[in-house]
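Example 430.
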Amino acid sequence: MSGVSWPIENELNEIKEIVSAMAGRGPEEVRVVVSPYRICPLGAHIDHQGGTVSAMTINKGILLGFIPSDDTEVILRSGQFKGEVRFSVDEVQQPRPIRKKGESHATDSPKLQEAGNWGNFARGAVYALQSRGISLTQGITGYICGSEGLDSSGLSSSAAAGVAYLLAFETANNLTMTPTENIEYDRLIENEYLGLKNGILDQSAILLSSHGFLTHMNCKTKEHKLVPSPKQSNFQKSYKILLAFSGLRNALTNSPGYNLRVVECHEAARILLKASGNDNLEPRLCNVDPEAYETHKGLLEPNLAKRAEHYFSENMRVMKGLEAWASGNLEEFGKLISASGLSSIQNYECCEPLQQLYEILLRAPGVYGTRFSGAGFRGCCLAFVDANLAEEAVTFVTEEYQKAQPKHASQIFTEKAALICDAGDCARVI
Ligand code: GLA
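Predicted structure in complex with alpha-D-galactopyranose:
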């Protein structure tokens, strides 16, 4: 697709060779699912409450090469994880909720799932289709591989894997699904099969984004639109997306957890709805009228008040951000992103370990705005940065983070603490 530099021909050929050797068939028979990672410039942690979010994909992600089996068998290998996964698509799949103790999180990449369990996303995809009455007859022989070092970084490697398996199984079984249907199937993988109470931001971004546009998703109505960037003066070339890594990839086990925050938001919604005489509505913050929030917010105890404040202020930042993007005002867009980062630190309280990285990025040359990426708690911060100063910003962040957090910095998979990338396209089968 025009303007998108990933995947490159060599990567595709390598994957085709591996699958062809696994299946004993010709490389020309191998199809490849391209499933990009996503960023969410504005709209943090409000998707599960029916808020409005913004998103785009990047030119990194997951590739899944596959050939339909001649029977129901699934055989999978991975570029990152050990072992071979084997099962049959006609086995009935049952949910495997995440473990309570330690609060493991389904948006962790397959790597953080129990050893040998990386195949859960493939089983989860079969579960999702089965639970909507679709029985598969064709398995696949496949090889899955993610861009180096980017799993568990808050870029949604888990939704990228879920979407990749859905598209592969559907293609192998000659099923044509709309993006909306696949958004729902991936929701079933995460919410039901894995037990994470997350929203639909990740898979919507992966399935709906288009290069050059900002995806705007209303998570209550499920309506979306693609907001074009200005055509004038090569806008797309004027900025880069910078990902700065914290070196923390396992910290979720020590954190209060994603699901806990979701429960707090529901509780805040329940109190506000009751106070405004609307307790017949589902307790999600999108069902609370902003005016009712202003009138009754004094009823919320401090933690719940902060979560609600994050929700309502973040929705407003998204709306302002869409305007700033459409008019090509990167300064304003960036300011809103940094304000979102601050609210995630102060109100949503989900990214304390990333705070130093965020503060370093605020001082880095050319940075328009920055915030943590993904669920917070660990992973990376994203920044929109002036393309001409992007390299300088990488050097600055690398040096400063090394000084601030030498131990965490030593855990980062590259020598530099940050990586520059560009916008990507939607998931597709090639
Ligand atoms: C994770 C979840 C998403 C969303 C983000 C935070 O990526 O999977 O549903 O809540 O965190 O915005």
